[in-house]
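testing teh design pipeline on a random one, pls ignore if ur not involved
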């Protein structure tokens, strides 16, 4: 028997259209979630590393390429190490793609938003 499911954690920016669509999708499925506005609260390097680990991703896979700062800093062509990129992303949360949804030890970048539904199933 499956025990109670802890609420999801959603790393988002409340003004983001995709994040608002995700909120509606989760509500439609009756999923409880904790919203984390990482643009307001920040995201520490260790927290970002933990999220990347849970997603099985590297920092370049969650780099928000549409963010103007990417061009300003020349990050598309950069040979910056993962550690350097994580430090930069931690200091500039706008560089991190959103929304990221976490359920325990698993996480997904919810693009498209339906990817979040993978975390509502056990296993």
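output:
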């Amino acid at each position: 028997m499956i025990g109670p499911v802890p609420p999801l954690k959603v790393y988002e920016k409340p003004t983001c259209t995709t994040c608002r669509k995700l909120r509606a999708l989760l509500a439609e499925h009756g999923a409880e979630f904790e919203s984390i506005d990482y643009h307001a609260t920040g995201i520490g390097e260790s927290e970002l590393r933990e999220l990347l680990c849970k997603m099985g991703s590297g920092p370049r896979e969650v780099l928000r390429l549409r963010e103007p700062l990417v061009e300003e800093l020349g990050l598309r062509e950069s040979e910056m190490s993962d550690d350097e990129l994580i430090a930069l992303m931690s200091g500039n949360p706008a560089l991190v793609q959103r929304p990221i949804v976490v359920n325990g030890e698993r996480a997904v970048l919810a693009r498209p938003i339906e990817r979040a539904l993978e975390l509502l199933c056990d296993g």
